[in-house]
Amino acid sequence: MTVFDWLEGVALPTGQKPFDVVELRFKANRKGFYRVSDGLALQVGDVVVVSADPGEDVGVVSLRGELVRAQMRAKKVRDDHEIKKVLRKATQEDIDRWQQARMREDTTVTDARAIIRNLNLNMKLSDVEFQGDGRKATFYYTAEDRVDFRILVRELAGAFGIRVEMRQIGARQEAARVGGIGVCGRELCCSSWLTDFRSVSTQAARYQQLSLNPQKLAGQCGKLKCCLNFELDQYVEGVKDFPSPNTKLKVASGRVVVFKMDIFKRLVYLLPLDEQGSGPVAVTVEDMKELMAMNARGEVPASLSDFAIEEEHNEIDDVYSNVVGQDSLNRFDEKRRRSKKRRNPKGKPSGSNRSGGGGAAPSGERAAAPARPKTEASSPQVAAEKKGGSSGNRNRNRSGRNRSGRNRGGNKPAQAKSE
Question: Is it true that the peptide bond before 245 is cis, omega within 30 degrees of 0?
Answer without folding.
Answer: no
